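#lab-general

N.A. 3:47 PM
ok so I finally got the sequence cleaned up, no stray characters, all 263 residues accounted for. can someone with queue access submit it? mine expired

B.Y. 3:52 PM
send it over

N.A. 3:53 PM
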Amino acid sequence: MPGAGGQWPWRGACRDRAMAGLELLSDEGYRVDGRRAGELRKVRARMGVFAQADGSAYIEQGNTKALAVVYGPHEMRGSRSKALHDRALVNCQYSMATFSTGERKRRPHGDRKSSEMTLHLKQTFEAAILTQLYPRSQIDIYVQILQADGGNYCACVNAATLATIDAGIPMRDYVCASSAGFIEDTPLADLNYVEEAAGGPQVALALLPKSDQIALLEMNSRLHEDHLEQVIEAASKACKDVYAVLDQVVRDHVHEVTTLLGE
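B.Y. 4:20 PM
back already:
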């Protein structure tokens, strides 16, 4: 529960320790939260959380929690001039719940960060969904961060992948995302809030794991080219680890649904 002043105690403590120059990687190779350099945070997910939507999913990656809802394919809404004659229009919207961080400021849908994340999600899923199967139609993907603790974009991609599969929309492959950073000459996978706040070089990678195709790659600061391959490799391996988890979630969901239908 939030403490006095509406702050999450763990977040305030993490921020204070990070700003105090916390050792992000111990001599034994352990990170602040006890993980090894290439280890993911614990991932939990479930599909079909909203009966009213065509597809939905909820995911937790460490303390980062995201919800995704998918509608479509359906006829174009609003101006039909936006319809694409040869493929579906992918419409995305990213937002953060006002209670997702310790900062109690209002986040309008149109703020710069949300607009940037919305664009990244659109680019990512245009690369993954077989949009040519649904000309002159529209697919809506809405994602919201319920609790932020690093890797927001990545959690949203992974939740949206599950929601899109839940909606029965064909994709070229799963699209899985993970971040990676470079701290003390070591590439770290799946950064948490403290590691992101340290301000070192970071990448966010969205990958189609079976073909190794990159749907989106974003870097937030300069990194020497000698280290770039290591960091991308760390993010790529983390994406494949995420894929293994998401694939099991899908298989478990299918088994659950077929069992219910068979009763």
